[in-house]
Design a protein that fits this description.
Largest sheet: 5 strands, parallel
Family: Belongs to the DNA photolyase family.
Pfam families: DNA_photolyase, FAD_binding_7
Domain Photolyase/cryptochrome alpha/beta: 4-130
Number of helices: 21
Helix content: 40-55%
Bound molecules: flavin-adenine dinucleotide
Number of strands: 5
Keywords: Chromophore, FAD, Flavoprotein
Low-confidence stretches: none
Protein name: DNA photolyase family protein
Order of helices and strands: EHEHHEHEHEHHHHHHHHHHHHHHHH
């Protein structure tokens, strides 16, 4: 058997357990060289996503070290770096787990072509999803456009059982040079202070597994009933771990299935699958209206109202709480995401791509498929979307899903004698140039909710007449 090493290129699969690529690689008994590359695709991610990926890499490097391996870090165009590493190490092949967003796919295709042209093996593995995006097809062999039908079909498939973490990994005869993670300066682009974000982040596979079991033990039973209340800790909080592959969806599926009675929770994991299914069939949906009729909708381009929205200064407390939560923690509750997105695209009549870009910059769980689907779902331009004329009222949404005002109190400092710690953290994190202070007056509304709703519906009627 050849003892030439295999290079394992890690991207969004920063875990030891249920990692099909790593499992298969360990089984070969060959020397393995794990590598992560800060390439133009990763450089193009938003500030919070890049930072969070770096935090994940740091934890994963420690997990690999316990198995006798190192995580080699390099920066540059992936196909060039991989070819260089092959030349330096005499590796026979490069393996990786697939990603499915258009930028990632284009990069991977180019890397595969270059490696193979040089006589190096290149092999990709599943693992980011329960089901490969093209594994679920309609009777006509096409993709699904409606979630309920998609999920009915997908749920009939068997994703298989999670794979165990490997034992000791065989090292190469010598390790290639590695960058120092700190030299990548992944925190530099963060507008929010790194210290604030770090206080709210606990990256890595061990934490992800602990979160899952804690959720199944103590919160899953009430999930369907409580998941819409942003002041409560009622959801799993697993999205950022799924984003960086610190836990596999198959592990979630299998552990949740064993616990039983969690169909609603599993169907939310199904929305993530559906998002990738759609992105696979419509790769442009991260940038363009999925339904191109919406190209003629009179959305406003970026504007002063949108800037107030980004800064959590719209004067609409539920919306501002949502934006501030994201700024401080890198996360936003799902109900709050829907209300904040509806407010931007409807009350403020602003193009969903303006909001998509801000979420992409601020979310530590930023996911190219789920973010695009979420925005197009709310805006009405996506498949199986909420109709545009269903405008969330930010006031009644607050009354219904934050009845005691606990979420708003947690995040809004202005006008309070004793603001909560999180509300103050927002001001600690915000750039000085925003010139905001917790003891200033809370901003007045950008637009009256009824007037905003009317303006949105008028625009919708004008657009319908154009169609
Ligand atoms: P739970 O309720 O515990 O759900 C479990 C898992 O299911 C989540 O971790 C997530 O992976 C998946 N999931 C749940 N809801 C959805 C959904 N609606 N669409 C796709 N997957 C879902 N999710 C992201 O992971 N990244 C994003 O960038 C993202 N952007 C969004 C933008 C908008 C405008 C909207 C409306 C939703 C967005 N979502 C995104 C979906 C959802 O808000 C988050 O996945 C969820 O809030 C994460 O919290 P949780 O892990 O506690 O979820």
């Amino acid at each position: 058997m050849s003892d030439r090493p295999i290079i394992l290129w890690f991207r969004r699969d920063l875990r030891l357990a249920d990692n099909p690529m790593l499992h298969e690689a360990a089984r070969t008994g060959r020397p393995l060289i794990p590598v992560a590359i800060l390439d133009p695709v990763a450089e193009s991610w938003g500030a919070a996503a890049r930072w969070r990926w770096g935090e994940g890499l740091s934890v994963f490097a420690k997990s690999l070290a316990q198995k006798g391996a190192r995580l080699i870090l390099r920066r540059g165009e992936a196909r060039d770096i991989l070819s260089q590493l092959v030349a330096e190490t005499g590796a026979e092949a490069v393996w990786w787990s697939r990603t499915y967003d258009p930028d990632g796919r284009a990069r991977d295709v180019a890397a595969k072509a270059r490696l193979r042209a040089n006589g190096t093996g290149a092999r990709s593995f599943p693992g980011h999803l329960l089901f490969e995006p093209d594994a679920v097809t309609t009777g006509q062999g096409t993709g699904y456009k409606v979630f309920s039908a998609y999920w009915r079909a997908a749920s009939r498939l068997d994703p298989g059982r999670p794979l165990p973490a490997p034992g000791v990994l065989v090292p190469p005869s010598g390790w290639p040079d590695s960058d120092d993670l700190s030299s990548w300066r992944l925190a530099d682009a963060l507008r929010a202070g790194e210290a604030v974000l770090r206080r709210n982040s606990a990256p890595g596979e061990p934490e992800a597994l602990e979160r899952l079991s804690d959720f199944l033990r103590s919160r899953a039973a009430a999930y369907a009933e409580r998941r819409d209340f942003p002041a409560e800790d009622a959801t799993s909080g697993l999205s950022e771990y799924l984003t960086y592959g610190e836990i596999s969806p198959r592990t979630i599926w299998s552990e949740t299935g064993k616990a039983g009675g969690n169909a609603k929770f599993l169907s939310e994991v199904g929305w993530r699958e559906f998002a990738y299914h759609l992105l696979h069939h419509s790769p442009d949906m991260a940038r363009d209206n999925w339904n191109r009729d919406w190209d003629r909708f009179p959305w406003r381009a970026d504007n002063a109202d949108a800037e107030a929205w980004r800064r959590g200064m719209t004067g609409e407390p539920f919306v501002d709480a949502a934006l501030r939560e994201m700024y401080v923690t890198g996360r936003m509750h799902n109900r709050a995401r829907m209300v904040a997105a509806s407010y931007l695209t409807k009350h403020l009549l602003t193009d969903w791509r303006v909001g998509l870009a801000w979420f992409a910059d601020c979310l530590t769980d930023w996911d190219p498929a789920a973010n695009a689907l979420g925005w197009q779902w709310v805006a009405g331009s996506g498949p199986d979307a909420a109709p545009y004329f269903r405008v969330f009222n930010p006031v009644t949404q607050g009354e219904k899903f934050d009845p005691e005002g606990a979420y708003r109190h947690r995040w809004i400092a202005e006008g309070r004698k004793q603001p909560q710690e999180d509300a103050l953290a927002f001001f600690e994190a915000a750039p000085k140039s925003w010139k905001i202070a917790p003891d200033a007056r809370y901003p007045s509304r950008r637009i009256d909710p009824a007037e905003g709703r009317k303006r949105a519906l008028d625009a919708y009627e004008r657009w319908k007449a154009l169609k």
